[in-house]
Write a sequence for this structure.
């Protein structure tokens, strides 16, 4: 598979994503500078974590207007698989590829720690290798992960099983006490209605190898590869040169 | 013209910074202080002399980039 990892000025998890797909999972990875406007032959695109454009104005607010985002939007519209992690999730929200917005963490702190997240929907292209209800230990590292959307959109997402990951106890109980950032409904990750764009605040690329003591995150990437194998529909070219 | 733009979280959306400042004001003895909202203030020079055109342009700036209207509201004033 050919995975594209977008590099914005200020991305800092881009090489971790590259490492997991290339060295751990043996895939071909293309690093895509944000000034590119033409994407060819990619099977999936990753918007990595970091602090694109220094988080100026709002997280993801300026990155969403990067030249590459036109092609990313077109790729997503044509059914291409897009994963946004942390800042990548924030960019997907600002770009309107996922509903809602991020607010500052309720505690106002930048939080960097391992957390338990529950796979609420294991029937997506990003979670197919997980069991339904499985608890994954994945670290978060953010100051703006307090997910918000209007009640109508939230209800629609709940009804469509678009809330894919929720913060939970190690036993899998979703309680307000384990919500790290004030996120609505303990939301840690959501998917679009079409099922090809997923955004998540936890960092699976930081825990995808047994040698690191935790490889729970690998399940997200394995799910993507399995899903791509089953649905080999590579998009030839998107964007405008 | 010069646009002076204020962007704040919508009423009803929790503003943790505002809350923290409100508590601090309370503990300093400012018992009359309440509902503190923190926002951003921006000044933009707009190279346009027609007030209606400048107004339309600043509104577009706010809608497209300066505010995320899902969670924020904006207001501005234009001066010569």
């Amino acid at each position: 598979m050919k995975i594209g990892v977008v590099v914005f000025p200020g991305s800092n998890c881009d090489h971790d994503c590259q490492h997991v797909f290339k060295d751990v999972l043996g895939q071909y990875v293309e690093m895509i500078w944000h000034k590119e406007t033409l994407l060819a032959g990619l099977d999936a695109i990753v918007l990595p974590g970091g602090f694109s454009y220094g988080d100026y104005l709002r997280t993801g607010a300026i990155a969403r207007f990067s030249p590459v985002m036109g092609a990313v939007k077109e790729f997503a519209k044509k059914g291409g698989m897009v994963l946004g992690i942390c800042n990548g999730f924030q960019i997907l929200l600002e770009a309107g590829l996922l509903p809602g917005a991020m607010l500052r963490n309720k505690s106002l702190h930048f939080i960097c720690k391992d957390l338990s997240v529950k796979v609420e929907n294991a029937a997506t292209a990003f979670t197919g290798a997980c069991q339904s209800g499985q608890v994954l230990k994945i670290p978060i590292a953010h100051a703006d992960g307090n997910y918000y959307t209007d009640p109508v959109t939230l209800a629609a997402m709940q009804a469509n099983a678009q809330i894919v990951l929720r913060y939970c106890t190690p036993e899998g109980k979703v309680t307000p006490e384990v919500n790290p950032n004030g996120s609505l409904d303990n939301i840690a990750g959501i998917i679009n209605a079409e099922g090809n764009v997923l955004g998540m605040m936890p960092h699976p690329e930081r825990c995808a190898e047994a040698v690191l003591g935790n490889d729970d995150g690998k399940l997200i990437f394995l799910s993507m590869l399995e899903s791509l194998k089953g649905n080999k529909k590579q998009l030839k070219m998107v964007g405008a040169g | 013209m010069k646009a002076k733009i204020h962007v704040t979280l919508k009423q009803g959306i929790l503003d943790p910074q505002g809350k923290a400042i409100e508590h601090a004001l309370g503990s300093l003895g400012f018992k009359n202080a309440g509902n503190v909202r923190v926002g951003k203030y921006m000044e933009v020079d707009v190279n346009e002399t027609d007030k209606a055109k400048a107004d339309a342009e600043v509104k577009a700036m706010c809608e497209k980039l300066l505010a995320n209207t899902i969670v924020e509201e904006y207001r501005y004033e234009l001066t010569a």
Chain A has a mean pLDDT of 95. The two ends of chain A are 23 Å apart (CA to CA).
